[in-house]
Amino acid sequence: MHRQITGKLVIATHNPGKLAEMRELLSPHGVEAVAAASAAQLPAFADDSGIVVDALGGAPGIYSARWAGPNKDFNAAMAQIERLLRERGAMMPGQRGAHFVSALCVAWPDDHLEEVEARVDGTLVWPPRGTAGFGYDPMFMPDGFDRTFGEMTSIEKHGLPPLGLGLSHRARAFVKLAENCLNGRS
User: Fold this and answer.
1) The CATH number of domain 8-181, selected from 3.90.950.10, 3.30.470.20, 3.30.420.10, 3.40.1190.20
2) DSSP one-letter code for 153
3) pLDDT tens-place string over residues 46-75
4) What residues does 116 pair with on adjacent strands?
5) What is the pLDDT of residues 131-158, one digit of tens each?
6) Looking at residue 54, what is its pLDDT?
7) Nearest-angstrom CA–CA distance, 50 and 152
8) Are 173 and 116 in contact (CB under 8 A)?
């Protein structure tokens, strides 16, 4: 049986961009995001996400943040992906397929877990476009759009209806989590 989230929720992340997005997604539900479950005796919310590049055999995948190195240089990480794609002859849009995946988990202090996963498919572009978002957003153009995540506002990328489209991988996973744990649904 699903459990409802109310009041405060601990977010387990070191990524300030993810924390900001999670706060935006949770605030309409009256849930305040604070920063880890047993120590706080509150439910803890964790997110892991990454970009999966088809021509690179799924890399960087779960290592997406590591590709940016200790200084979180995503420009260098995007350049590395582009170099590897070129080495493999992946120059045409049909050869540059990728998807973002997001896995969300809420853990309660009594070890109850709620877990969901979602993805958004797209194509990698070069050079990167836009300064919005974070990580690999400037090189990822979601299917059906002519702008990268880096060119979209936060509302366009992960805003939920009626304001946004719930387009991002994280927004899609959040919708699943909300169906299970928010809004009084069970």
Assistant:
1) 3.90.950.10
2) -
3) 888 999 999 999 999 999 999 999 999 999
4) 104
5) 998 999 999 999 999 999 999 999 999 8
6) 98
7) 19
8) yes
- Global confidence as pTM: 0.81
Look up residue 165 and give its amino acid.
L
Tell me if 106 sits within 8 A of 175, measured CB to CB: no
Strand ranges, E, within 81-136: 97-107, 113-124
The DSSP bridge partners found for residue 144 are none
Sheet hosting strand 140-142, strand order edge to edge: 32-34, 8-12, 44-53, 97-107, 113-124, 140-142
Residue 87 amino acid letter: E
3-state secondary structure of 51: strand
Tokens (6 digits) for 105: 């988990």
From the list 47, 48, 110, 146, the catalytic residue is: 48
The length of the chain in residues reads: 186
Tracing tokens 């601990």 back to the chain, one arrives at: 10
Q: How many CB atoms lie within 10 A of CB 78?
A: 24
* CB atoms closer than 10 angstroms to residue 175: 17
Q: How far apart are CA 63 and CA 43, in angstroms?
A: 26
What the block records as the tokens of 128 is 């990167």
Annotation says 48 is catalytic: yes
Residue for token digits 């309660």?
Answer: 108
